[in-house]
Amino acid sequence: MVQRGLSGFSRKMRRNPSYLLSLFGLLLVISLVLSITLGSVSIPLKDLCQVLFGQGNHAVDKTVILDIRLPRALAAVFGGAALAVSGLLLQIFFRNPIVDPYVLGVSSGATLVVALLMLTGFSLGMGSVSPFLVTLAALIGALAVVALVMAIAQRVKSAVTLLVIGLMIGYLCSAVVNILMTFAEKENLHNFILWTLGSFSGFDWGEVEILAPAGGVLLAAAYLLSKPLNALLLGEDYAQSMGVNIKKLRISTVLISSALTALVTAFAGPVAFIGLASPHLARLILGTSDNKILIPASILLGATVTALCDLLARISFSPIELPISAITSLLGAPIVISLLMKRRTSL
Description:
By secondary structure, the protein is mainly α. Helix content is about 75%, strand content about 0%. The chain has one domain (about 1-340): ABC transporter involved in vitamin B12 uptake, BtuC (Orthogonal Bundle), CATH 1.10.3470.10. The longest helix is centred in the first third of the chain and has 36 residues, at about 60-95. The radius of gyration is 21 Å and the shape is globular. InterPro entries: ABC_BtuC-like, ABC_transptr_permease_BtuC. It is found in: Cell membrane.
C-alpha cells in the first residue's frame, strides 16, 4: 500500500517537473545556508540573517560570512552549475553517457600552462606564484585549447572524430606535464598537485564577480540550445528536417561547453565527476530527455552537489581541508556506476 502510494506520488511529480525543480531550488538554498553556517566557527542562522540584512554588529561573523564563506559558497554554486551543463551538452552531442566536460582537453590545456608556471623558472624567480597568475595561466591554457577545438570542429563532420581528437589533445598535454613533474622541485610539485585536485578555497568577491556573470550568460546560451538539441536526439536527419543547422549547432554546443569548463578550471582547477554525474542524476530523477527541463535541473543539481561536496571537503578533517575532487570522486563514482548499471532512460 505504502509502496503503491509512493509510486503514484513519484509519477505525479514526474508529470509536473516544476515541482521537482522547486524542490531542487529549495535544496540549493539549504546547501548554501549550511555552507555558510558550518565550519570551524559555527554561525547561528539568526546571526547569518542579521549579517545578510546589514543588522549584525559582530565583526568576526561579518568577516567570516561576507569575506570568506559567502564568496566561496557562491563560487561552488556557479562552478557546479557550469560543469553540470557542460557535461550535459557534451553527453547529448556525442551521444555518450560517460562523456564529461574535460573530454575535449580543455582542463589538460589549463593544467599544462599552470605546470609551466609552477614547475619551471617561468615564475621569474618569485618565492611563490600568486593565485592571480595561476588563474590567468589556467585561463590562457584552457582558452587556447578551446580555440583549437573550435577550429577542428569547423573542419570535422564526425562527432566521434572530434571526441578522439580531444582525447589526443589531453594525452599530449598530460605527457608534457608528466615530464615537467619529473624534474620539478618538491615544494613546487606539491603545490601543483594540490591545484590539480581542485578547490574553491580562497575565492574573493572579485573572482565571483567574474565567474557569476560569465557563467550566467553561458548557462542562458546553453538553455537557448535546448530545442535544437531535443531535435538532435531523434537523429541528424530529423533535426535537419526541422530546420536545425547541424554545423552551427555543433559549433555552438562545443563552444559553450568548452567555455563553461574553461571558466571553472581557470578559477578552481579541475573538479571531478560533477559534470559526469549531475546530468545522470537529473535524467534519473525526472525521467525525461527534454532538455528544456534537464538543463535547469542539471544547473540546480550540479550547484547543490558541488556546494555540499565543498562543505564536506572543508569540515570533514578540519582544520585540514581536503581537495574537492577527493569528495566528488568518492561520492560520484558509486553513483555513476549504479546509474550505468540501472539506467532507465536513454540519452
